[in-house]
Every structure is written in structure tokens, then in C-alpha cells.
């Protein structure tokens, strides 16, 4: 079976993994709401976010940042959204600029795949809006190398739900999942999801990802290793 398309995860795969997600923002919001309760509120907000990500093992329905903030507000009985957005407007999103860095091998690897006539996709579990991710992809010259970029904040379901992978394949006009490869850093979300959708799955191990006994079709440490795999599979 040939390879017509390769779909990548974003965080930990094309971009370098950032261990914290919203923890810095939650601390800003907690300090804004009640400075004397900063540590307590931060811990509770981090727990709300952890519960959101745990849904990859249950209903797998996607959510937006607005949904997450609504859950946080319900938990704390405080207007978390207003506090976070006021802080974000001043400094938080700009502060991410130094944290988000794409793998230096990402652009050369994507370029080499495109030169082989392979379509490129991106499928990311995220509650951030599209503009957040696109900002960094465009900054680092990757946006023009990826034919279809899908974010679960705009979709009904997140990985590993088969609907998320079907949406990516559809966006790339790939009608036989066996001719597509998914590359990601999470055994459950990425590898089990891709294989469940009929795709081949390549794991780029992330020591912070939850382990799972699913077996990928291949394991790579660096993105350029993908090229020899694709050539062999073609």
C-alpha cells in the first residue's frame, strides 16, 4: 500500500513539548481574582483542566477555551473568564511566544515529504482557537507546508475518536485510510486513535505522555527518520 498523506500531531511532535498547559494563565487568573488565595485557586483551576484532558479516555467530545472557562467558573463560583481574559489581553498570549518553538527539523521534513508528492495534514487536540496555533505556524514558516490544519476546538470530537481522524483524511481528500500515516507523541490519543481509524501510526515518544500498551507501526526519535520509513512503505 502506498503512502498518499502524512498527518502530524502538533504539541510534542511538530512543536517542542511544553510540559505546562494553562498553569501560568491559571495563576494569573487566581491572583487577579483573590491574591490571598492564589495557590488554592491555581490548584483547583489546574484540576479543572486536568479533568478536561481526561475526557480523551471517556466521551472524547471536544471543547473550546470558552467551555473550559465555564467549567472553571462553575467550580470556583467566580468569573474566571473575565479574570483570565483581562490578564491575557495585557500579557499572557504574548508571553507564550518564547515558549512555543517548533522542532528545527519540522520544516525540512515537511518540505521533503511534499517533494515526494505526499499531502500533509495537522490534527491537534486543543481548546485554543485556530488563531493561537496559526500565529506560531506562520511565524516559523510551517503554515504553507501543511495542506490541511485541523484543531479539535472547532470539531465535535477529539483524538482518539475516529471522527477526528476521518475529518483529517477528508480534508486531505484521502479515501483509503491505509494510505495515510499519522505521527504523534501520545500512545492513546495518537497511536491508538490512528490505528483504530485504519491508518498506520508512528510514535515519537514523549516521556510526559500517559503510557498505553498499543503498538505503533514504527517509532522515531527525530522527524527526519520519518523519511526513510515513508520511502520503505511506498
**Roughly what fraction of the amino acids lie in strands?**
5-15%
Mean pLDDT level: 89
Q: Write down the overall geometry.
A: elongated
Q: Main sheet?
A: 6 strands, parallel
Helical stretch tally = 9
Helix content: 40-55%
**How many strand segments?**
6
Question: Could you name the ranges where pLDDT drops below 50 across 5 or more consecutive residues?
Answer: none
Cα gyration radius (Å) = 18 Å
CATH class of the largest domain: Alpha Beta
Distance between the termini: 7 Å
Order of helices and strands: EHHHHHEHEHEHEEH
Strands ordered across the widest β-sheet? 3-2-1-4-5-6
Q: What number of structural domains do the residues give? A: 2
Briefly note the structural class of the backbone: alpha/beta
Named at the architecture level, the CATH assignment of the largest domain is 3-Layer(aba) Sandwich
Q: What is the CATH superfamily label of the largest domain? A: HAD superfamily/HAD-like
CATH topology of the largest domain: Rossmann fold
Give the SSE layout.
Layout: E1 5-8, H1 23-33, H2 38-54, H3 65-76, H4 80-95, H5 106-115, E2 119-124, H6 130-139, E3 148-151, H7 162-171, E4 180-184, H8 187-196, E5 200-203, E6 218-219, H9 225-233
Parallel strand pairs: 1-2, 1-4, 2-3, 4-5, 5-6
Amino acid at each position: 500500500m502506498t503512502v498518499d498523506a502524512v498527518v502530524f500531531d502538533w504539541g510534542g511532535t511538530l512543536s517542542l513539548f511544553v510540559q505546562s498547559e494553562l498553569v501560568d494563565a491559571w495563576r494569573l487568573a487566581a491572583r487577579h481574582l483573590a491574591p490571598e488565595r492564589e495557590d488554592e485557586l491555581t490548584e483547583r483551576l489546574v484540576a479543572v483542566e486536568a479533568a478536561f484532558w481526561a475526557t480523551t479516555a471517556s466521551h472524547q467530545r471536544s471543547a473550546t477555551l470558552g467551555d473550559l472557562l465555564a467549567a472553571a467558573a462553575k467550580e470556583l463560583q467566580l468569573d474566571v473568564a473575565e479574570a483570565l481574559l483581562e490578564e491575557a489581553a495585557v500579557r499572557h498570549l504574548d508571553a507564550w511566544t518564547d515558549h512555543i518553538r517548533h522542532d528545527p527539523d519540522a520544516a525540512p521534513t515537511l518540505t521533503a515529504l511534499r517533494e515526494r508528492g505526499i499531502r500533509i495534514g495537522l490534527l491537534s487536540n486543543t481548546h485554543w482557537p485556530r488563531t493561537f496555533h496559526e500565529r506560531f505556524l506562520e511565524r516559523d514558516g510551517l503554515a504553507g507546508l501543511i495542506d490541511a490544519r485541523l484543531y479539535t476546538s472547532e470539531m465535535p470530537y477529539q483524538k482518539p475518536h475516529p471522527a477526528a481522524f476521518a475529518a483529517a483524511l477528508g480534508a486531505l481528500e484521502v479515501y483509503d485510510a491505509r494510505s495515510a500515516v499519522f505521527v504523534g507523541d501520545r500512545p492513546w490519543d495518537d497511536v491508538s486513535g490512528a490505528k483504530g481509524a485504519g491508518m498506520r501510526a508512528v510514535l515519537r515518544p514523549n516521556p510526559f505522555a500517559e503510557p498505553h500498551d498499543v503498538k505503533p507501526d514504527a517509532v522515531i526519535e527525530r522527524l527526519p527518520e520519518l523519511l526513510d520509513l515513508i520511502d520503505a512503505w511506498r
